[in-house]
Design brief:
This is YbjN domain-containing protein. With 130 residues, this protein is α+β, with helices and mostly antiparallel strands. The protein has 3 helices and 6 strands, in the order H-E-E-E-E-H-E-E-H.
Amino acid sequence: MATWENLTDFIRSEYEVTKDTDDELRILIEYEDGRSQVIIIAREILDGREDWVQVASVCGLVADVDLKRFLEEIGETSVVCGAVIMGEHLVLRHALPLENLDINEFTDPLTFVADTADHLEELFFGGDGY
């Protein structure tokens, strides 16, 4: 899978897409316990020439969390993804180059980001808002 079009075709066939634009898809991951997590999959152009895909998920509002404890938890429990602040939100994200991307190189990190974001959202924010 080497193009954004190939990836988005795969995503549309395998996941519940809730938003679909030229450079972004949003999917809903639902868990057996009734929780769910929205995942944002966006096309990014690195240095104006390389296609990358970014997988991101919102955990909660920055104002509502102890960032030190949050980052420590990520350090202890996650091997994939980093935490960033985007506007008022605390977001987990991971990026991958599209060139020569194998499907498992996309699906495994997507699952890790979703599961980690859902875990952190429940642990630190006590709800299921994202």
